[in-house]
Amino acid sequence: MGVHERDSRGRGPGSAPAGTGLTTGEVARRLGVAPTTVRTWDRRYGLGPDAHTGGRHRRWTPVDVARLERMCALTATGIPPAEAARTVLDETPQEPPPAASAAPATPTLPGAAGEAAGEEAPARRDEGVAPRPSVRARSRAGSGLRLGDVRQECKGIARAALRLDASALDELLETAIAEHGLVAAWTEVIMPTLQAVGRKWESSGEKYVEVEHFLSWHVSGALRRAAPPTAADRPGATVVLACVPGENHTLPLEVLAAALAERGLPVRMFGGALPVESLVTAVRRTGPAAVALWAQSRTTASRPLAQHVAAMEWGVRGARRKPVVLTIGPGWSGRTVPGLPRPTGLAEAVAVLETVVSRQRAVSP
After folding, report:
1. What is residue 22's DSSP assignment?
2. Number of helical (H) and strand (E) elements in the chain, helices listed first
3. For the chain, how long is the longest CA-to-CA vector?
């Protein structure tokens, strides 16, 4: 094949040296799709990498990734994959620029500046060749969310959620938790993505409510799968987690329950909108070391309720115990209850509860 000839897929010859570029798995994580989807698009529609390294492991350059970004953007709008693939291939220039075909290409990872992001060099622009959009720009267009300066995983998860791709979403969430741990995955990957999706539907007339519900459901499932089995009860060491009455946002409590279970602490999770009488009964029956009350909204955060639970006592006379009550969630902002811990994040809440339980174990008979 000559330097100006194209292969059967309508693309110019690749010249990336072996070992450069991204693997199929890395590309899948960046796009928010399953690796099998990337391979299917390659095999069925001819959207594989331009460069052939001669080995089993394919390597994808920024130009290759940009082509798949375009594929993701089109399919996310409801265009069938076959039609989207034809559009992507039709948008590929029919002849490679002479300067590009004569000089060896130097593939780089996406995310760097200038040519590393997929932009054409100024000299090639002077020759009248239209520059291709950068991988970074395609990434923003593909997700449709203003994620800001966040981990790359957030963009992949957001794209999978927008496409309502259950299989890819589960894989990406489980990978994030396995690589970063529950606390870091929630704080740095999952929560920023959830917040971005929430902002999206709030600013678009609730157009993306189904995306938020879909993402929340899969996050909940991923947390349950990642958490170890609940630890057996130990007198005075149990932690009770509950939303205050009228509060139904349970996901933050679910990640807290998973993080505590990961540390071997016995947890009793009671979920959303627990009535006052039921909360009091649950505390009396479990005799917990601590109770964490979640409030998303200031209209649901109740100081009297928190004070009442903190004043509850049980045990024999002379050895009465009280629970430590944590007020957690944005609803408690500006409604601090004197004497009760108010951790401001997941890591702090876990640390406080670990300390409370260990202290209670030390004084227990």
Report:
1. B
2. 16, 4
3. 93
- CA 97 from centre of chain: 39
Considering the entire predicted model, what is its pTM? 0.60
Q: Read off φ and ψ for residue 293, nearest 5 degrees.
A: -110, 120
Q: What is the pLDDT of residue 148?
A: 53
Give yes or no: residues 249 and 356 share one domain: yes
**Which residue range forms the structural domain that includes residue 165?**
152-226
DSSP string for residues in 278-298: HHHHHHHHH--SEEEEE-SST
Name the token pair of 2.
Answer: 């000559």
Structure token digits, residue 9: 């897929």
Distance CA 183, CA 189 (A): 10
Question: Last residue of a domain, which of 226, 258, 283?
Answer: 226
Domain count, the chain: 3
Same domain, 326 and 357: yes
User: In this structure, what token pair is assigned to residue 200?
Assistant: 């999206």
End residue of a domain, out of 115, 142, 169: 142
- Residue 125: count of CB within 10 angstroms of its CB: 12
* Rounded CA separation 330/327 (Å): 9
Rg (CA), the chain: 26
Confidence of residue 199 (pLDDT cuts 50, 70, 90): confident
Q: Evaluate whether 24 touches 60 at the Cβ level (below 8 Å).
A: yes
Residue with the two structure tokens 């292969």: 7
CATH code where residue 348 lies: 3.40.50.280
Give yes or no for a contact between 159 and 31, defined as CB atoms under 8 angstroms apart. Answer: yes
If residue 255 lies in a helix (H) or strand (E), which one and from where to where? helix 251-262
CA pair distance 65, 156, nearest whole angstrom = 13
- 270 and 219 belong to one structural domain: no
pLDDT in tens, 78-122: 677 888 888 888 876 544 444 433 333 333 222 322 222 233 333
- Of 226 and 234, the one with more pLDDT: 226
Residues in the chain: 365
Mean pLDDT of the chain: 75
Is the CB of residue 316 less than 8 Å from the CB of residue 365?
A: no
Residue 22, φ and ψ in degrees, nearest 5 = -105, 150
Beta strands in 157-276 (DSSP E): 239-243, 267-269
Q: What is the three-class DSSP state of 271? A: coil
